Amino acid sequence: MAQNIAKLDEIMGAAPVIPVIILDDVDAAIPLAKALVAGGLPALEVTLRTPNALKVVEKMASVDGAYVGTGTVRTKADIEKSIEAGAQFMVSPGAPPKLLEDALEFDVPLLPGISTATEAMAAAELGYQRLKLFPAEAVGGAKLLKSFGSPLPDLKFCPTGGVSVQNARDYLSLSNVICVGGSWVVPNDAIANGDFEHIKNLAATAARLRDA
Ligand code: 3PG
């Protein structure tokens, strides 16, 4: 099996931004997912970095209109746990060949992270044409992705890491960028204060980033 590109294009193309969520408070999961979806960001990446992350995924997966995925996927066990929790996609900071091979055994697609042309080519060799550029700003940002466009025209990206409302348009204007990922739409203090209206507003601004 190769990476399910049609499914990933549907998820990555749903909005210009995929919020990167680090959440341990299971009670906040549904209000947070509802706020992001209502603001216009239906694809949500829940990182496997908190003890309750998989419970958060399960809760969010019940929200109408949400595409819930897991992030920080590093092992086959992470893949299995993600799928069991209801993830519709998975994201990894890297692209170790073993992880890429393991993920091809499952229907739920993996978006692996790369930061060089060689890594992108190695992933493409294994059937991966949708990739995360990580950590995007630190490894060369929009300039790097623009440079990938001509030699690697079949590959499309979701840059993540240091992307913000200020620089997102630099990425979104590139023909090889489908969406960007970022945590700026889910500030910790707003979650802690239960200020989901603020998060909805941040999501709505992010959802309009492709507009003129
Ligand atoms: C992450 O995995 O934490 C993402 O890359 C988010 O990066 P950001 O906090 O810079 O948006």
From TrEMBL:
Domain of life: Bacteria
UniProt entry keywords in alphabetical sequence: Carbohydrate metabolism, Lyase, Schiff base
Entry keyword Lyase: yes
GO molecular function annotations of the record: 2-dehydro-3-deoxy-phosphogluconate aldolase activity
Record-listed E.C. numbers: 4.1.2.14
Catalytic activity, reaction form: 2-dehydro-3-deoxy-6-phospho-D-gluconate = D-glyceraldehyde 3-phosphate + pyruvate
Subunit structure: Homotrimer.
Protein family membership: Belongs to the KHG/KDPG aldolase family.
Name of protein: 2-dehydro-3-deoxy-phosphogluconate aldolase
Species: Maritalea myrionectae
